[in-house]
Write a structure and sequence with these properties.
Keywords: Acetylation, ATP-binding, Ligase, Magnesium, Metal-binding, Nucleotide-binding. Helix content is 31%, strand content 23%. The chain is built from 21 helices and 31 strands. The strands form eight sheets. An eight-stranded mixed sheet has the order 12-11-8-6-7-14-15-24, with helices on both faces. The structure holds 5'-O-[(S)-ethoxy(hydroxy)phosphoryl]adenosine. The site of 5'-O-[(S)-ethoxy(hydroxy)phosphoryl]adenosine has 23 residues, from helix 12, strand 20, strand 25 and strand 26.
Length: 651
């Protein structure tokens, strides 16, 4: 793509930003040539209880994958996010909360944050939660979700946040997998004027999990809507009552740098979601440094990331990174189009937001609603825009830049993953020219490379699979309870390298263009989902005999979910049944997994050994069936004609 548009760094930005091009080159070179020196210095941005003497101790050797950073240091993450700011900025706002209704907001100072987090930590302690215990957090986007995460960090409990849009079954699986016996939830959530029955879902999930041998001692319930909920005697506790019974101060637990901070479940190409485990020291250093430099965060800036705390973006760039930097971080409970399509920009004006970070799917949806909803707002406070979660198409990038940012704000397209803990590839705003659609260049300490399918390193301008050659402090350490799965998933495909699962192109300037997943992971509206998860939900339906799920390009969502379903003998393929299956998947996984297109297929294309040929199914789903490649190896080549004839996605 030599004809790619380039937006050079303006002199003004080179001047104001922490990092300009010369500094980037100098720091980058040092970060890869002398990682111990570089990260040893950078880690001073964090307060350590006991200083580390060792910096990097990592091995990508397939037979001995082991990742440790700052391993003999001790610290507490909540102290880094709260206590250390009290001397200088106790009365500065830490969290601005904007509710679902525009009339609803709150400002929480660092002093208040300290008190709320300590009280909640004491409530957990009073009910037996100890260092190393797993606490499941299933909450709407309210400040108590952040308090809960930080309170866990304070006492050394490991939090597992489950997105509030997941179904009771998905929640049950996550409670079971990490054997969590303390759950924090709320009566109901509210989004776009609609209520979500979080406590009722939690009750169902626990019932399911307990049938499978899990045991939940307590459920702590935050009152959000005041809706009617059942409280189970002896197990369920009201947050507002409990916090009154405990002290307003809670001494922090001294944690080793490699003690777990949290588990976050994410989808892979096979099996159940895996518990991505992050530890304390490296994660805090990495989220804090990336938040400062990528968003060029200066003291006093108002920063807003629109993600949900149920995803890694919410962990790293609503809670830990910003709070470690003493920032003012905005938490938004609602959705972009409620009460109107101007909501995002109205919130920017209301709170004077300087830095705004969102997902391409939201940008595309708002772009579709027309410029007027944007241009009627001021947005004068905005200085920098960010994008995350999926590839951003150049049209959406340009619209974001031109209409939302009025060509005044650089756009940082940030590529990263739940596994990476923080941003790995992005244009630093004062240093690196932006190209719409490209995440451009690596952050400090990150060494991306492109390999072919055999694992050979490709040089220069090229295209292939994206790997990372060496570790950075924010990297996940293991899959909770299954280190072998960690090794097999990330280090077995291209031995000696971390495999991202993404494909990419590198252009002649050395800029990276992420082209999307090369495995069976879908990215629907920026939400990660395994095709295998949707398939297993479908085949759990009594009328379904077999199912194959693939992604196809979708204007707003990036990718849509296309399901091929073979019914049990004698079942009628009706529109009613399609609706029933759609609802079924929603209730099995959650609304984010709702199938976009369902095609009833009398047979699926399989090899003679019975393997489903997904390549063919993908092509048909993409409405690109003129060149299906060699179908002669199929057990029954005729099924392909039927699939093409009844395809659902006609241009
Ligand atoms: C995709 C979200 C292109 C990618 C932080 C990755 C992106 C997956 C970008 C991780 C981007 C994320 N450009 N693709 N800027 N950011 N992705 O774990 O496929 O929810 O592997 O982490 O999202 O999704 P996850």
């Amino acid at each position: 793509m030599s004809d790619a548009k380039v937006h050079s760094v303006t002199p003004e930005w080179a001047e104001r930003a922490f990092i300009d091009w010369d500094k980037y080159q100098e720091m980058y070179a040092r970060s890869v040539e002398d990682p111990n020196g570089f990260w040893g210095e950078q880690a001073q941005r964090i307060d350590w209880i006991k200083p580390f003497t060792k910096v990097k101790n990592t091995s990508y050797d397939y037979h001995n994958v082991s990742i440790k950073w700052f391993e003999d240091g001790t610290l507490n993450a909540s102290v880094n996010c709260i206590d250390r700011h009290l001397a200088d900025r106790a009365d500065q706002v830490a969290i601005i909360w904007e509710g679902d209704e525009p009339s609803d907001d709150k400002h929480i100072t660092y002093r208040q944050l300290h008190e709320y987090v300590c009280r909640l930590a004491n409530v957990m302690k009073a009910h037996g939660v100890k260092k190393g215990d797993r606490v499941t957090i299933y909450m709407p986007m309210i400040p108590e979700a952040a308090y809960a995460m930080l309170a866990c960090a304070r006492i050394g409990a490991i939090h597992s946040v489950v997105f509030g849009g997941f179904s009771p079954d998905s929640l049950a699986n996550r409670i079971e997998d990490c054997r969590s016996d303390f759950v924090i939830t709320s009566d109901e959530g509210v989004r776009g004027g609609r209520k979500i029955p979080l406590k009722a879902n939690t009750d169902k999930a626990i019932e399911r999990a307990e049938k499978d041998g899990a045991s939940v001692r307590n459920v702590l319930v935050v009152k959000r809507t005041g809706g009617d909920v059942a409280m189970k005697e002896g197990r369920d506790l009201w947050y507002h009552e409990e916090i009154e019974k405990v002290e307003a101060d809670c001494p922090p637990e001294e944690m080793g740098a490699e003690d777990p901070l949290f588990i976050l479940y994410t989808s892979g190409s096979t099996g159940k979601p895996k518990g991505v485990m992050h530890t304390t020291g490296g994660y805090m250093v990495y989220t804090s440094i990336t938040h400062q430099y990528v968003f060029d965060y200066h003291d006093g800036d108002i920063y807003w990331c629109t993600a949900d705390v149920g995803w890694v973006t919410g962990h790293s760039y609503i809670v830990y990174g910003p709070l470690a930097n003493g920032a003012t971080t905005l938490m938004f409970e609602g959705v972009p189009n409620y009460p109107s399509g101007s909501r995002f920009w109205e919130v920017c004006d209301k709170h004077g937001v300087n830095i705004f970070y969102t997902a391409p799917t939201a940008i595309r949806a708002l772009m579709g609603a027309g410029d007027e909803a944007v241009t009627k707002t001021s947005r004068k406070s905005l200085r920098l825009l960010g994008s995350v979660g999926e590839p951003i198409n150049p049209e959406a990038w340009e619209w974001y830049y031109r209409v939302v940012g009025e060509e005044r704000c650089p756009v940082v397209d940030t590529w990263w993953q739940t596994e990476t803990g923080g941003i790995l590839i992005t244009p630093l705003p004062g240093a690196i020219a932006q190209k719409p659609g490209s995440a451009t260049k690596p952050f400090f300490g990150v060494q991306p490379a492109v390999v072919d399918n055999e694992g050979n390193l490709l040089e220069g301008a090229t295209e292939g699979n994206l790997v990372i050659l060496d570790s950075w402090p924010g990297q996940m350490r293991t899959v909770y309870g299954d280190h072998d799965r960690f090794v097999q998933t990330y280090f077995a495909t291209y031995k000696g390298n971390y495999f991202t699962g993404d494909g990419c192109r590198r252009d002649a300037d050395g800029d990276y263009w992420i082209t999307g997943r090369v495995d069976d992971v879908l990215n629907v509206s920026g939400h990660r989902m395994g095709t295998a998860e949707v398939e297993s939900a479908l085949v759990a339906h009594p009328k379904v005999s077999e199912a194959a799920v693939v992604g196809y390009p979708h204007n707003i969502k990036g990718q849509g979910i296309y399901c091929y379903v073979t019914l049990m003998a004698g079942e009628e393929p009706t529109d009613e049944l399609k609706k029933e299956l759609r609802n079924w998947v929603r209730s099995e996984i959650g609304p984010i997994a709702s199938p976009d297109l369902i095609q009833f297929a009398p047979g699926l294309p399989k090899t003679r050994s019975g393997k489903i040929m997904r390549r063919i199914l993908r092509k048909i789903a993409e409405d690109d069936f003129s060149n299906l490649g060699d179908t002669s190896t199929l057990a029954e080549p005729a099924v392909v004609d039927d699939l093409v004839e009844h395809r659902q996605n006609r241009a």
